[in-house]
Design brief:
single chain, alpha/beta, Rossmann fold, 6-stranded mixed beta sheet, two-stranded antiparallel sheet, nucleus, enzyme activator activity
């Protein structure tokens, strides 16, 4: 694949460049419904595209789309909050970057981009038939990577990264502030503090760590009893702090709450100074060993309620973990599920009595790390199995 020059996708272009297939958006034909309305309303009725939801064509606009000029209605806003940072197992985003849905997706050919676009959005906003032409291209560069900011009616917003952050901070119910995503040329390798469980294998399989990478890139500590702030500061700085309780059935001489308190203590040591814009992420995973009182304490200390991520096979609950994290999309309905406390209690009892070797819960949360591709350098676009 030919190297793609580093371009600033947030910079204003010196001229309009219309992408293939976008030279003419017909306005003379009366539209049918939905997204067919967009071009008609803009071309024939001279309606400002900011007054139209570019995801579905609704005229009931709630706010502005964070990435492209145009409005977004309340239902599409909720869908975007849930899906904009979701990734599939192949390392690419799960849904269209415009409408956050779509059945057939066009994948950006830039090796540093993971975004996708559905045929429907491309045809309705860039030009009829554009999706077919793009699909036939061997190396297509998407609308957030092109040097030109406009393709037909699709106009990339200026400073779209800060617009995306403002969109999430304003519209999301997540109590924690989102960090602004980082342009490719400014991304650095992620520096990880892994407490109790070693997640090097998982991060390497996701492309965040190189095989044989700098030992300073990941610091694994099992017993943190004597670890003080000076130690963490000397090991760091860190971009990601991960910790987990032991799996059920794992022999240990400490109460489950010890892992929570020690994680929270070291998390405070690792945090950037107040006001720092540096992206900083953390995740704490409970393998169903914390009791009700411990869970309440964890939610108070970590300033959010946990999400339950289940492992279901054949309609049967095989495993589950509770997760607290500030990584984008961790609270997406794609990851978590409504599992009753009775089901979790029964699962915990079965696992406790099982004679199978206890395993750490990393498998269930592995793909939750993929949104970090928007913030840190990754060394491989090909994901591998860590199991």
């Amino acid at each position: 694949m030919a190297a793609i020059p580093a371009l600033d996708p947030e910079a204003e272009p010196s001229m309009d460049v219309i992408l293939v297939g976008s030279s003419e958006l017909s306005s003379s034909i009366s539209p049918r419904t939905g997204r067919d309305l967009i071009a008609y309303e803009v071309k024939a009725n001279q309606r400002n595209i900011e007054d139209i939801c570019i995801c579905c064509g609704s005229l009931q606009v709630h706010t502005q789309h964070p990435l492209f000029e145009g409005g977004i209605c309340a239902p599409c806003k909720d869908k975007s909050l849930d899906a904009l940072f979701l990734y599939d197992d192949d390392g690419y985003q799960s849904y269209c970057s415009i409408c956050c849905s779509g059945e057939t997706l066009l994948i950006c050919g830039n090796p540093d981009c993971t975004r996708c676009y559905c045929f429907e959005c491309v045809d309705s906003l860039v030009g009829p038939g554009t999706s077919g032409k793009v699909h036939a291209m061997s190396n297509w560069v998407c609308y957030l990577c092109l040097p030109s900011s406009r393709s037909g009616l699709l106009q990339r917003r200026r400073k779209w990264r800060s617009q995306l952050k403002a969109f999430y901070d304003r519209e999301s119910e997540n109590p924690l502030e989102m960090f602004e995503t980082v342009p490719v040329w400014r991304r650095q390798p992620v520096r990880v503090l892994s407490l109790f469980e070693d997640i090097k294998k998982e991060l390497t399989s996701l492309g965040f760590l190189e095989s044989g990478s700098d030992p300073g890139q990941l610091k694994h500590v099992v017993d943190v009893t004597d670890t003080v702030r000076k130690d963490v500061e000397e090991w760091g700085p860190f971009d990601l702090v991960y910790g987990a309780t032991p799996p059920l059935g794992h022999t240990c001489d400490r109460p489950p709450s010890w892992y929570l308190f020690q994680f929270h203590r070291l998390l405070q040591y690792a945090r950037p100074k107040p006001g720092s814009p540096r992206p900083f992420f953390w995740m704490f995973v409970d393998n169903l060993v914390l009791n009700k009182e411990d869970l309440d304490v964890a939610s108070r200390f970590l300033e959010m309620e946990p999400v339950t991520i289940p492992d279901v096979h054949g309609g049967s609950l095989q495993n589950a973990v509770r997760v607290w994290s500030n990584i984008p999309a961790i609270r997406s309905s794609r990851h978590w599920a409504l599992v009753s406390e009775e089901e979790l209690s029964l699962l915990a009892q079965n696992k406790q009595s099982s004679k199978l070797a206890a395993k750490w819960p990393t498998k269930l949360v592995k793909n939750c790390f993929l949104p970090l591709r928007e913030y840190f350098k990754y060394f491989s676009t090909e994901l591998t199995s860590s199991l």
